[in-house]
Amino acid sequence: MKYIIVGFGVFGSSLAEKLVSQGNEVIGVDMKMQRVNELKDKITHVVCLNVTDAAAVETLPLKNTDVVIVCIGEDQGANIMVTALFKNLNVKRLIGRSLNPLHENVLQAIGVHEIVRPEEETAERWAKKLTLRGMVDSFELNENYSIVEVLVPEIFIGKSIEEIGFRREFNILVLTVVKNIERKSIIGKTKIVSEVQGIPKPETILEKDDILVVYGANRDIKKFISDNR
Fold it and tell me: Which residues form the signal peptide (predicted)?
């Protein structure tokens, strides 16, 4: 996939690096040369240009780009102007960063395809992690359903997925299991790495420190975690 990320703040630069680490091509754009220099060796390509200038933006390879993400977070006016500019250029998929509810309304009026709320989404995940002991991380699909990583409850250690009956007993699905595997490096040092096991079989036995990746209604997941601490 090919991405253009506009704005090298904490969110934009972190997102760009993670996308590159997953094998994607990322062009990063910022108006400040210092930020461009900081990322030039970390992502595919960086450009310093005035993103509020339509002529300058049109020099970017927009037709060959799958997703444009506007991550500007310091200047709400610039964020709106740049988002509208990309919308008018009919990019394939446009994602805007919302800074507050009013800003989000403006982005929706512009016709942005998707809106990201990094601060709000991070706060939501941390609120769950702090209040639900045993939860590792979560991804909210909508206000009712989530995908959640849960440390395997002690009472389930040594039991199979079929024996526990997650769907039958708790109305949730186990999408995969993440196991901590001991690996040796090329110099002989031992380290623990997390390894996704793929779609689990009914006979998969759960072990201590396994992480369950489950899907279901928020109320069912919360009850599962609370009842099996």
Answer: none
CATH number at residue 44: 3.40.50.720
Question: Which stretches of the chain score pLDDT less than 70?
Answer: 120-140, 183-194
- How many domains, the chain? 2
Same domain, 107 and 132: no
The residue out of 65, 82, 116 marking a domain boundary is 116
125 and 112 both lie in a single domain: no
Residue (of 141, 132, 163) closest to 217 by Cα position? 141
Tens digit of each residue's pLDDT (9 = 90 or more) over 166-184: 999 999 999 888 887 776 6
Q: Report long-range pairs for 163-171 (Cβ below 8 Å, ≥24 apart).
A: 164/206, 166/214, 170/216, 170/220, 170/223, 170/224, 171/216, 171/217, 171/220
Within 8 A by CB and 6+ apart from 24, the residues are 1, 2, 3
Contact by Cβ (8 Å): 26, 44: yes
Nearest to 89 by CA among 111, 74, 107, 105: 111
Average pLDDT, the chain: 84
pTM for this model (two decimals): 0.60
Whole-angstrom CA distances from 90 to 25, 58, 80, 94, 139 are 20, 11, 16, 9, 29
> Do 8 and 41 belong to one domain?
yes
In this structure, what is the dihedral angle of CA atoms 146, 150, 155, 160, given to the nearest 10 degrees? 80
Tell me, what DSSP letter sits at residue 155?
Answer: G
Q: Write out the residue range of the structural domain in which residue 49 sits.
A: 2-116
Place of tokens 């590792």: 136
